[in-house]
Design brief:
80% helix; mainly alpha
C-alpha cells in the first residue's frame, strides 16, 4: 500500500483551504452561510476521499466507497441539520475509509481515530479563534497530513512485508512489452501443439 506523504497532504491542505475560502466568500453572497458550510464540509470530505482513493494501490471497492460516501452525505443532510453533527459524521467517514484502505490492525486504527479527533479539534479551534474558513480548513487538513507518519501495522511479519514489496516491485518491472512477448510465445506454442496433433 502506498501511504500518503506529509508533503502531499500539506499541498492538499493548502489547495483545499484556498478553494474553501474562495467558495465560501463567493457563495455566501447569495446563499445562507449555514447552507454553504454544509456544502463545503461535504465537498471537502469528498475531495479528501478521492485523494485517499488515488493514493491507495487497492483497486477494489472504489466506486462503492464513493457511492457510500454520497449516500452518507445525503443521509446526513436529511437527518442531521446540525453543522457540528455533519462535521463529526464526515470526519468519521474519512476515518473509516482510511482504516479500510490503509490500516492493518486495531492499534493503528485507534491512532488514526485520535489523529482525526485532533484534526477536528484544531479546525474548530482555528475557526473559533479567527473566524476564518481558510485557517480552519488549513488547520484541519494540515493535522490530517500527519496520517502518512502513522504506522499501518504494528504486528506485520517481515515475511509478509517482503512478499508485498516484491509483488509491488514485480508489478512495476513488468512492462506492456514483456506481457506482449510472453503472450506471443504462449500463442506460438499453442499453435505448434495444435499443428502437431493434425
Amino acid at each position: 500500500m502506498k501511504t500518503p506523504s506529509f508533503l502531499n497532504g500539506a499541498a492538499l491542505a493548502f489547495a483545499l483551504s484556498i478553494a474553501a475560502a474562495a467558495l465560501f466568500a463567493t457563495l455566501t453572497m447569495v446563499i445562507m452561510p449555514g447552507v454553504v458550510m454544509h456544502w463545503l464540509i461535504a465537498g471537502l470530505g469528498l475531495a479528501y476521499t478521492l485523494y485517499l482513493l488515488r493514493q491507495t494501490v487497492a483497486r477494489v471497492g472504489r466506486v462503492t466507497t464513493v457511492a457510500v460516501w454520497c449516500i452518507g452525505t445525503v443521509a446526513t443532510w436529511v437527518f442531521s441539520p446540525s453543522l457540528a453533527m455533519t462535521l463529526i459524521i464526515h470526519v468519521g467517514m474519512v476515518w473509516i475509509i482510511r482504516v479500510l484502505y490503509f490500516s492493518n490492525g486495531a492499534l493503528p486504527a485507534l491512532l488514526d481515530l485520535g489523529l482525526s479527533a485532533l484534526a477536528l479539534a484544531a479546525g474548530v479551534w482555528a475557526a473559533g479563534q479567527t473566524g476564518s474558513v481558510l485557517l480552519a480548513v488549513w488547520s484541519f487538513f494540515l493535522v490530517q497530513a500527519l496520517f502518512g507518519s502513522l504506522p499501518r501495522s504494528l504486528t506485520k511479519p517481515a515475511l509478509t512485508r517482503r512478499v508485498q514489496e516484491s509483488t509491488e516491485r514485480g508489478m512495476r518491472l513488468e512492462s506492456d512489452e514483456d506481457s506482449f512477448e510472453r503472450a506471443h510465445r504462449n500463442a506460438e506454442a499453442a499453435v505448434r501443439r495444435l499443428s502437431a496433433r493434425s
